[in-house]
Structures are given as structure tokens and as C-alpha cells.
Amino acid sequence: MMNTQPVKAIIVGGGHRSLTYAALAEQSPELLQIVGVAEPDPGRRQMIAERFSIPEAHCYETAALLAEAPKFADAVINGTMDHIHVETAVPLLRAGYDMLLEKPFAVNEAQARLLVKTAKDCGRRVMTCFVLRYAPFYRKIKELILNGAVGEILSIQTNEYVSYHHMSTSHVRGKWRNSEQCHSSMLLAKCCHDVDLMMWLMAETQPVLVSSFGCNQQFRPDHAPRNAGTRCIVDCPLVDTCLYSAKRLYLDHPDRWSWYVWDALEHLPNPTLEDKAELLKTSPYGVCAYKSDNNVVDHQTVSVSFASGATGVHCMIGGASAGKRTIHITGTKGEIDGEFEAGRLTLSEIDPSPGCEHRDTVFDLRVENDTHGGGDLDLTRDFLACVRGETPSVSCTDIQDSLAGHLVVFLADRSMECGGVPQPVIL
To answer: What value does the CA radius of gyration of the chain take, rounded to a whole number of Å?
Structure first.
């Protein structure tokens, strides 16, 4: 008999992504119930407890303390920072919890293989939060491929253009600006989505070789505008004109990246612009974009050779005027071309009939006001189905299935460090 009770889950790491997935409990309480939290920040821990009516006995400061306590839920939603995913996940898997784990699930190959092995040894279900697989745009591409619309794939090309304000916030000034601090490369932090999509869409074959080139060309002290200061609103005369002025990016658009830029003001119920301006005088988000301690690349190209003979290329370009993802797939029977943000996808099939060279079908798959194209809660629903023992969807991001994409990213970064020398993929 099918289990009709809601899945009981615990939030581990009470950040933006965890709360996004947990929001399903408020929309569909018959599917999901949040019954615990493990979060080191006392204010955030209390906020989550109040939001989901979690008793104090089920509030923990760390994942380790949670793992030591008697098991009281079915699953964990793990949204901790990248470099502690494995550290927090392993004890909880051993404690008997299934897990929805934020991407990337590990920051190096040894960690990745350890986590995959632990999940297998413990018999636990682990899904990685590659939410783009669940967006209608990419699900339609997968459907077309499975239906044979383009025949055998010869080439797959993907691009991610990271907008200038996203690049500044996350990878020049923010949490993922320095690989020594966040333990994650730019490619891993930003494009593991895209590489995972490539592996998923190419699932009928396997990657065998990876090479890559890239560097930080723009966000360096020698590229700073003449007379630039070290802090935008403290000592910089270009505060009203510089493309990367913290005043222009954050004070003039205070809601755009609020969950990152203003996190230190969470204790204030209604912080003012004056409060925010004062914070920028000392926070990393107020540092000159060209004089930050960032050490990650601002552009990188990855080339993949597949066992079938097909090739794949992914390009990440940081600092673009607008953020977008594009894809072009060429097969033996046709092509797929699309832009994710526009939600526009074209299937162009070879048509040798008289007067026609190709037959085009256009799909409008746009989802408004959702940076992940409508995939977040569908991923959560699929995870709950797995926990209940039901058959998951074709988009399911089982941890074993997620391994190939992670390995390709790790090997691409290794290749880049070695001047582009191809690296073999061993699954």
C-alpha cells in the first residue's frame, strides 16, 4: 500500500536554498512536514523554528549534534555551504536519513566518491539539487532526445553568461570569490548545473576525456579604473560612474541580491538604506571589484569527448550584460536550439521533401519570476516520491547519476591548471 503520510524532514543549514525547498511544506503540507532544524546561527535557527512550528527539542546547533540524537524524521534537506556537504552528510546518512543535498554535493573527487560509497553502503537515497533538470525548458529537450527527434547526438554546446551584477555579488565580492575560502572553483560553484545537464542529456554515452582553458582576465587590480579607491562608498571618486560601484549595484537595487548582500542585517526588522550604506563600508560587498581578494576565473571553456564519438563544449562567461543560458544540440536527424531565460526552444528536423530543407517546431516554455525556470518545487516533489519508494521522474538527480558531472568539473579545473592537457574520465 502506498504511504500517504507526509514525509517528515529536517532542515540542515538554514540558508536561502534550503528554505526554498522547504517552502513546499507550506504549500503542500500533505506532502512534506518540517519537524527539525540544525543551524549554527541562533537568530536564523529561531526564525526557522517559528516559521515551521518546530519544538525546541528538535532544534540543533550543528549537523553533528543532530546525527547523535535519536532519529525522528524520514529525511534531511541539506543546504549547508559547499565545502561541508560531505562533512555534514556522512553522519546523517549513517544515522538513517535520506537526503536532499544542495549542489555541488562535494568539492573534490575524493569527497565525491566517499559520499557516493556511503550512500550505497547505508542504503540511503540521496538526491542532488540540480534543479534545472526539472525546468520545463530542459525537460522538453530531454523528451525530444528520448523520442529520437534529433537522432544520434553529434555535438552539444552550452553557454552560461553570468550577468555583471551576479558575477560581482557571488564570485568577485561574495561567498564564492576565493577558492581557498569557499573550497569551490568558479566552474564548480556556478556551472556544475550546466555540466550536469550535458551529462544528463548525453546519458546514452559516457564522457572519456576533458580539457579546459580559462583565467581571471577582468577583475584584477591592474584593470581597475584610474583613481579607483579600495571601497566604493568610502574612498572612491568613481562611486557614481563605475560599472561595478557597490552603490549602483546594491543601494540603487537593494532587493536584487538582498539574501546575500544584506545578510548581516537580518537582526533588523526593517533595515534602512542608511543601515545598508553603513554595512557596505565594512562588508566584502563594498570592496572595489577590481581589488577584492577573489582568485576565481571570470571565463572558462570546457571540452568533453564522449565514448560515442560525440563532443560537448561548455563556455562560462562572467560579467555579461545580461545573464542567460543557451544550448545547441546537433544530431543525425536534426537540431535543437534554445535560450533558457526566454523559454524559447526550436526543434529543426531535416526534411528532404521537395521545396523544404528543414521543418521547424517552436516551443514556448517560459516560466516567469523563477530563476530556475520552475524547477525548485518539482525537484522537492520528486525527492519526496523517492523517499516514499515511488518511481522517480526522468529528471531524478540520484547521487550516483550526479557523479559524472562532478568528475567532469574536477577534471576540467585540473586540465586548466595544466595548460589544457586532456584528462581521462574514470567513472
So the answer is: 22
